[in-house]
Specification:
mainly alpha; 434 Repressor (Amino-terminal Domain); 2 domains; 66% helix; 0% strand
Length: 187
């Protein structure tokens, strides 16, 4: 935990802030910032939240409690979505298993996992509804049933392209909230 002061100092300098500016932004005493950066004390609770908020970072980035950066795991995590091509709802089951096993051990996986899983659940529901409705409309000889089939194909194409794009973005270092989420079922 001795790194906390060093990490805060490095991030503060990277953002071009003086200790006084950080203290003012975080609404914390200047002496508190000095003590933290000199590793004379560790920020706790509210102070840590205020400093992280002022620096526009997650507390997780500073307090990583033994977590490790594993970009390769995050890339594979995104690509496991493609298992839906061979296993029905594999796009939910495989990432869910991977997420539950490592969410507290890999930096960024907790948020990435909730984002990915929420999207996949909504995607699966929409894909199921579109193909089921298509089949029902086809049986009833409904004139515009083909539109639902095209919607289903479009959903499949989106769910093939997005994981690949997001795996590439993760490889380049972007790991936050890549999938669009309209409904948050997992928090």
């Amino acid at each position: 935990m001795n790194d906390i002061g060093k990490k805060i100092r490095a991030i503060r300098k990277k953002k071009g802030l003086s200790q006084e500016e950080l203290a003012e932004l975080a609404k914390v005493n200047l002496r508190t910032i000095q003590r933290i950066e000199n590793n004379e004390s560790e920020p706790r609770g509210k102070t840590m939240s205020l400093i992280c908020e002022a620096l526009h970072i997650n507390t997780e980035e500073i307090l990583n409690y033994g977590k490790q950066n594993d970009k390769n795991y995050l890339i594979i995590f995104h690509l496991t979505v493609l298992t839906f091509l061979a296993i029905p709802i594999g796009n939910i089951i495989i990432p869910l298993i991977m997420w539950m096993n490592k969410k507290d051990k890999i930096i960024g996986l907790k948020k990435t996992g909730t984002n990915l899983l929420n999207f996949q659940i909504v995607w699966s529901i929409l894909a199921y509804i579109s193909i089921t409705t298509f089949v029902l409309f086809k049986i009833m000889h409904y004139r515009y049933s083909l539109i639902l089939f095209y919607l289903w194909i479009g959903l499949y194409i989106i769910n093939i392209i997005l994981p690949i794009i997001f795996a590439i973005k993760t490889n380049k270092g972007k790991t936050r909230n890549l999938y669009p989420n309209f409904i948050k079922l997992i928090k």
